[in-house]
Amino acid sequence: MSAKVTLHMVSSLDGFIARKDGSVAWMRSKDTYENGVALSEEDIAEFLKKIDCYVMGSRTYEHALKLGWPYGNTPVIVVTSRDLNSEKLSVSLYSGDLPELVNNQLKPKYHNIWLVGGAMLSKEFLRHNLVDDIIISIMPVILGDGTLFFDYIGKEQPLHLKDVTTYKDGMVELWYELT
Length: 179
Ligand SMILES: NC(=O)c1ccc[n+]([C@@H]2O[C@H](COP(=O)([O-])OP(=O)(O)OC[C@H]3O[C@@H](n4cnc5c(N)ncnc54)[C@H](OP(=O)(O)O)[C@@H]3O)[C@@H](O)[C@H]2O)c1
Hints:
- By secondary structure, the chain is α/β, with parallel strands linked by helices.
- An eight-stranded mixed sheet has the order 5-4-3-6-1-7-10-9. A two-stranded antiparallel ribbon has the order 2-8.
- The radius of gyration is 16 Å and the shape is globular.
- It is built from four helices and ten strands; from the N terminus they run ββαβαββαβαββββ.
- The mean pLDDT is 95.
- The chain has a single domain (4-15, 37-157), classed as Dihydrofolate Reductase, subunit A (3-Layer(aba) Sandwich), CATH 3.40.430.
- Bound molecules: NADP nicotinamide-adenine-dinucleotide phosphate.
């Protein structure tokens, strides 16, 4: 199996991935969709076990540290031009050429690489053709304001729809492959 970069983002229906104040309560839905799939903690843990590397921008990293680290001991690459303090052994900082990072450093070493945001770094990855798959989890909410996922990438990109999954909490997951 060849190595793959999957860009994953949780979005509101109107395309926002973060509120201005950074609060994340909107990501926990109170909706119910009877025909949707219900995932158990075990299902989620099993799925996450298959991810062998995460990549994120520095703002996402700083936010994750504040909210509670959800990445366990899986290797995490934080893209930043700053000399950030990283006391976690699983975290490495990277600054520089993104194709060099993905093609020469990550893909030879890892199989299932997840780019988990934020918007700024994701757009850079898309502009450099470094994303293989995109998974968007759309929550049943309109936020009206905040950080947009796809604002002005400046590039057209055809996609192949691989799968759609609907969940019990009203979340819809769209899985695309970049063609
Ligand atoms: N809904 C979701 O699924 C989701 C997922 C992830 C994040 N978020 C939210 O999104 C927000 C953060 O997103 P964001 O778009 O503001 O920021 P971001 O993409 O997480 O981080 C941006 C930073 O990454 C670094 N960076 C980006 N491209 C770079 C490059 N080519 N070379 C070197 N460094 C580079 C820069 O860091 P330096 O300034 O340090 O140089 C830049 O300031 C947070 O509120 C977070 O909680 C939501």
